[in-house]
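User
New here, explain this?
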Amino acid sequence: MVSSKYAARASFLDGKGITVNEMAWIIKGIVTGLIGGHIKLGAYAAKYGISMARSILSRAAVTAAARVGLLTKISGWILQIAVNVADVYGNFAYNIAAAWDAHDKIPNNGRINF
């Protein structure tokens, strides 16, 4: 049987806990998903908030709904750019996972032990 050079690589499947790299990947995915949801929320507010405001409220409410939607989209884009820059220059997700590893059940072993 030919063994792969990756056969001994650490993984959450070996029952020893989640590695720091895997947790960094999970944290990055959660942050990206939350930012994406924030941007979609702005688009939803801009689209449906304006139509609802037009049907029941004044012109000031229409402009307020449009402003909220636009500001939410803009702040989401700025937040997404900031997170991408922080990830490129500081690898924030890995740093969070490493700090978590330093304070878990077995400190500094390269795994997150719950």
